[in-house]
């Protein structure tokens, strides 16, 4: 009998806890991102973001790459909370000063313009973190890449983390294992790593980000055999041993402003620009196979890219009553 009672109590407990769970998912979906989040509060939000991004990319095609990267550098530091957009002030030390961002992260003025347009249309409603997620998707589409529905409802942080930016965002000279570990710490896996690295199908890198590959500085005095030597010679003409740190190079020299799979094809030919690109093909059997798959099949890459972008956009968002909707993306609200 006692046994039977225990069973009944156990069952009731199970039923109760599942009720609690469904209540949680039902009550306005607090804690969850979903594409329709602004459908009533700001029905034109998505169109407004697209319009400003399209204008900026028409003026300067590289802007698509810069905006895509901002979302990545935001999400890897205390989650997708627009912390990267904060300027230094009071106790806040801006992430814009970190090693990965200094003299490199760009697109902040475009975000300002989007935010101003949204504040005019529906004040205090659309978060800067959601602007970054939408702008990343629009940038991908505008350069010929895949589209996806962006889950929305992120809120903005009231702080930034310079150390998080320095430590969490992979560096171009990190080993394959370090890069993978940094992705795993964010809940992303090796498939996400390879697909999202495909972002380097657009945009630029500075000489300082890959110089060591050109001058046998890898530590063993040997040429970097994972870099095609005639391509290396070409790169050396504008990336000297010293000086020229800020000189710009296309990450994908085949089609630098088109979102396609030529980045992966170049890796097969040992013509990846950054060491962190080429190691995807040379240092790990699983990632090597993925690189090959995406090089041979653009659709496969596009589908996985969209899926991995949604996953990245889901890293620790602030939702419900946490965080705030900033009035200006560069600073926290006064109240
Ligand atoms: C896997 C590790 C990654 C490393 C080590 C890395 C590193 C870099 C570096 C060094 C640059 C050039 C910066 C400069 O010289 O100014 C760059 C540019 C860029 N990265 Fe990454 N990246 C990684 C992953 C990603 C991911 C996951 C995305 C997007 C989801 C991304 C998007 C971009 C874009 C679009 C650019 C060009 C930006 C522009 O032209 O303004 N990267 N990355």
From TrEMBL:
<feature type="site" description="Transition state stabilizer">
    <location>
        <position position="69"/>
    </location>
</feature>
<keyword id="KW-0479">Metal-binding</keyword>
<protein>
    <recommendedName>
        <fullName>Peroxidase</fullName>
        <ecNumber>1.11.1.7</ecNumber>
    </recommendedName>
</protein>
<keyword id="KW-0964">Secreted</keyword>
<feature type="disulfide bond">
    <location>
        <begin position="75"/>
        <end position="80"/>
    </location>
</feature>
<feature type="binding site">
    <location>
        <position position="74"/>
    </location>
    <ligand>
        <name>Ca(2+) 1</name>
    </ligand>
</feature>
<comment type="similarity">
    <text>Belongs to the peroxidase family. Classical plant (class III) peroxidase subfamily.</text>
</comment>
<dbReference type="InterPro" id="IPR019793">
    <property type="entry name" value="Peroxidases_heam-ligand_BS"/>
</dbReference>
<feature type="domain" description="Plant heme peroxidase family profile">
    <location>
        <begin position="32"/>
        <end position="333"/>
    </location>
</feature>
<feature type="binding site">
    <location>
        <position position="252"/>
    </location>
    <ligand>
        <name>Ca(2+) 2</name>
    </ligand>
</feature>
<dbReference type="InterPro" id="IPR010255">
    <property type="entry name" value="Haem_peroxidase_sf"/>
</dbReference>
<keyword id="KW-0732">Signal</keyword>
<dbReference type="GO" id="GO:0042744">
    <property type="term" value="P:hydrogen peroxide catabolic process"/>
</dbReference>
<feature type="active site" description="Proton acceptor">
    <location>
        <position position="73"/>
    </location>
</feature>
<keyword id="KW-0408">Iron</keyword>
<dbReference type="Pfam" id="PF00141">
    <property type="entry name" value="peroxidase"/>
</dbReference>
<dbReference type="GO" id="GO:0005576">
    <property type="term" value="C:extracellular region"/>
</dbReference>
<feature type="disulfide bond">
    <location>
        <begin position="207"/>
        <end position="239"/>
    </location>
</feature>
<feature type="binding site">
    <location>
        <position position="77"/>
    </location>
    <ligand>
        <name>Ca(2+) 1</name>
    </ligand>
</feature>
<feature type="disulfide bond">
    <location>
        <begin position="42"/>
        <end position="122"/>
    </location>
</feature>
<dbReference type="InterPro" id="IPR033905">
    <property type="entry name" value="Secretory_peroxidase"/>
</dbReference>
<dbReference type="GO" id="GO:0140825">
    <property type="term" value="F:lactoperoxidase activity"/>
</dbReference>
<feature type="binding site" description="axial binding residue">
    <location>
        <position position="200"/>
    </location>
    <ligand>
        <name>heme b</name>
    </ligand>
</feature>
<keyword id="KW-0575">Peroxidase</keyword>
<dbReference type="GO" id="GO:0046872">
    <property type="term" value="F:metal ion binding"/>
</dbReference>
<feature type="signal peptide">
    <location>
        <begin position="1"/>
        <end position="22"/>
    </location>
</feature>
<feature type="binding site">
    <location>
        <position position="81"/>
    </location>
    <ligand>
        <name>Ca(2+) 1</name>
    </ligand>
</feature>
<feature type="binding site">
    <location>
        <position position="95"/>
    </location>
    <ligand>
        <name>Ca(2+) 1</name>
    </ligand>
</feature>
<feature type="binding site">
    <location>
        <position position="201"/>
    </location>
    <ligand>
        <name>Ca(2+) 2</name>
    </ligand>
</feature>
<feature type="binding site">
    <location>
        <position position="79"/>
    </location>
    <ligand>
        <name>Ca(2+) 1</name>
    </ligand>
</feature>
<keyword id="KW-0325">Glycoprotein</keyword>
<keyword id="KW-0106">Calcium</keyword>
<feature type="binding site">
    <location>
        <position position="260"/>
    </location>
    <ligand>
        <name>Ca(2+) 2</name>
    </ligand>
</feature>
<keyword id="KW-1015">Disulfide bond</keyword>
<dbReference type="InterPro" id="IPR002016">
    <property type="entry name" value="Haem_peroxidase"/>
</dbReference>
<keyword id="KW-0376">Hydrogen peroxide</keyword>
<feature type="binding site">
    <location>
        <position position="83"/>
    </location>
    <ligand>
        <name>Ca(2+) 1</name>
    </ligand>
</feature>
<comment type="function">
    <text>Removal of H(2)O(2), oxidation of toxic reductants, biosynthesis and degradation of lignin, suberization, auxin catabolism, response to environmental stresses such as wounding, pathogen attack and oxidative stress. These functions might be dependent on each isozyme/isoform in each plant tissue.</text>
</comment>
<feature type="disulfide bond">
    <location>
        <begin position="128"/>
        <end position="329"/>
    </location>
</feature>
<dbReference type="GO" id="GO:0006979">
    <property type="term" value="P:response to oxidative stress"/>
</dbReference>
<keyword id="KW-0560">Oxidoreductase</keyword>
<feature type="binding site">
    <location>
        <position position="170"/>
    </location>
    <ligand>
        <name>substrate</name>
    </ligand>
</feature>
């Amino acid at each position: 009998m006692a046994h039977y009672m225990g069973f009944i109590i156990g069952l009731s407990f199970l039923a109760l806890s599942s009720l609690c769970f469904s209540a949680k998912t039902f009550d306005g979906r607090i804690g969850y991102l979903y594409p329709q989040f602004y459908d009533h509060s700001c029905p034109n939000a998505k169109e407004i973001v697209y319009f400003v991004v399209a204008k900026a990319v028409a003026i300067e095609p590289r802007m698509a790459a810069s905006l895509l990267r901002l979302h990545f550098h935001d999400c890897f530091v205390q989650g997708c909370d627009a912390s990267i957009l904060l300027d230094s002030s009071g106790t806040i030390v801006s992430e814009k000063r970190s090693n990965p961002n200094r003299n490199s992260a760009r697109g902040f003025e475009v975000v300002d313009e989007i935010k101003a347009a949204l504040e005019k249309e529906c004040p205090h409603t659309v978060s800067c973190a959601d602007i970054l997620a939408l702008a990343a998707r629009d940038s991908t589409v505008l350069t010929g890449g895949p589209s996806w529905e962006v889950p929305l409802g992120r809120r903005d942080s009231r702080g930034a983390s310079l150390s998080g930016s320095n430590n969490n965002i992979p560096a171009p000279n990190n080993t394959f294992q370090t890069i993978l570990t940094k992705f795993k710490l964010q809940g992303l896996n090796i498939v996400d790593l390879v697909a999202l690295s495909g972002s380097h199908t657009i945009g630029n890198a500075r000489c300082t980000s890959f110089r060591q590959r050109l001058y046998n500085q890898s530590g063993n005095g040997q040429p970097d055999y994972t870099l095609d030597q005639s391509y290396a010679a070409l790169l050396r003409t504008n990336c000297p041993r010293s000086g020229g740190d800020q000189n710009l190079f296309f990450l994908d020299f085949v089609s630098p402003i088109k979102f396609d799979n030529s980045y992966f094809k170049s890796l097969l030919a040992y013509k990846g620009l950054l060491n962190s690109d080429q190691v995807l093909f040379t240092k790990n059997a699983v990632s090597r196979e993925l690189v090959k798959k995406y090089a041979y099949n653009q659709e496969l890459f596009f589908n996985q890219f969209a899926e991995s972008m949604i996953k990245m956009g889901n890293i620790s968002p602030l939702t419900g009553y946490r965080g705030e909707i900033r009035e200006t993306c560069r600073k926290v609200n006064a109240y």
